[in-house]
Amino acid sequence: MKGGGKDMLIIPIKEGENIDRALKRFKRKFDRTGTMRQLRSRQQFTKPSVKKRTQIQKAQYIQHLRDQEDI
C-alpha cells in the first residue's frame, strides 16, 4: 500500500449504547485525525510563499481580534 498506511479508526460500541452516540464519537475521532483537511490540501499545490503569507494574515487577524477584545 502506498502512502502513510494509517490504521483504521476503531470505535468500540458499549452494550445498549445508542448508535447516534457512537457515530458522534466516530466523527469526533475522525476530525481529530485531520484526514479530510489533508486530502483537501493535497488537491492543489500551494506555493510555500503563499502558505507563509496566509499564515501571517491569519496571525494578524487573530491579533487584531485579541486587541479589540482588550479595549
UniProtKB/TrEMBL annotation:
Residues 34-56 are annotated as: Disordered. Pfam families: Ribosomal_S21 (PF01165). The keyword Ribosomal protein applies. One of its GO terms (molecular function) is structural constituent of ribosome. InterPro entries: Ribosomal_bS21 (IPR001911), Ribosomal_bS21_CS (IPR018278), Ribosomal_bS21_sf (IPR038380). One of its GO terms (cellular component) is ribosome. Belongs to the bacterial ribosomal protein bS21 family. HAMAP family: Ribosomal_bS21. This is Small ribosomal subunit protein bS21. The gene is rpsU.
